[in-house]
Amino acid sequence: MGLLDKLKSLLFGKEAVSEGKQDAKPGAKPADEAIVEKPAEQPVAAKPAEDKVEQVEQKHIIQKPKEEKPVADKITVGHVHMSGCTGCLVSLADNYEGLLTILDKYADLVYCLTLADVRHIPEMDVALVEGSVCINDECSMEEILETRERAKIVVALGGCACYGNTTRFCRGGQQNQPQHEGFVPIGDLIKVDVYIPACAPTPQQIRNVCLMAYLLLKGNDEQKALATAYLTPLMNLAAAGTEACGCDLMTEVINQGLCMGCGSCAAACTVRAITMQYGKPQVERDLCIKCGACYAQCPRSFFSFDVCGQYESITELIGEVMKP
Question: Which residues pair with 132 in a beta bridge?
């Protein structure tokens, strides 16, 4: 009996106390029921920690993205810049998404002063050499010799590298080093395998030579045959030497009845030494600097039946390998 019940019993008697118990709030449980509690539910046995680990691992495996394997058969390409205007490198970059396709699937750019953070010329499969060599500069002489030693294929990129172009007549234009006055094409110093002449070569021609070099080194027998057919005229240009002039158009194109009057030679001349008269090119010999751009740009100058007979196959091959 609580203290309140004792007070009620003293004041009003035991009957009031019993009546007060009956006036409990409606809906309240009796004392006996309140005391009785439901037995606690048995907790569900937790799964072993190993099961959780397996679930986490499975979830991790499912969500993990697939790793794309890099192309293992890429060739390595480098751009070696000698004495030039960088126009050939701009032409290379003008391939836009085509350049990205080449770098993604077929070639790794391992050396380029503008596009790659590499200080010294490394080992590489193909070296694209732009510009002529200053024979008064010891560093330039060392670099061109290193390029020949460390590259399997050396490509003379542009008129300066092939024939000297306007650099044969310049003094360097460097006030702090006036001794830079002698420039020669790279073929006068090292063996060159392929010429890509003109000033500057077209982006498509540079791209095609890179692709054909890849197929020549990594392709199957049929692809190697097509690549050889494409590169043969450019290899013949390299074997012909480092001198060319507008007179070559006269002796090897016009006099052979091959000129069709397209005007490509006049458009390619950097000093405007060629004009078109009566549908034929006229060369001002006093203005000609013997850069070879006109002869290389002529579509009938180094006429090759090896290429013409397989033109469709080569074109289809280039289109197939350039698909993104």
Answer: 83
**Tokens standing for residue 280:** 């034929």
Cα–Cα distance between 199 and 292 in angstroms, integer? 9
263 Rama sector, left if φ>0, alpha if ψ -120 to 50, beta otherwise:
left
Domain ranges of the chain: 75-243+301-321
Least confident of 150-164, 176-190, 278-292: 176-190
Residue whose C-alpha is closest to residue 210's, from 180, 236, 230: 230
Top-level CATH class of 75-243+301-321? alpha beta
The reported pTM is 0.69
CB-neighbour burial class of residue 145 (10 A; exposed 0-12, middle 13-18, buried 19+): middle
Kindly state the average pLDDT of the residues 83-96: 89
Q: Write the DSSP string, 30-61.
A: PHHHHH--PPPPPPPPPPPHHHHHHHHHHHHH
Question: With bands split at pLDDT 50, 70 and 90, how would you rate the model's confidence at 68?
Answer: very low
Q: How far is CA 302 from the centre of its chain?
A: 30
Tokens of 86: 């960088």
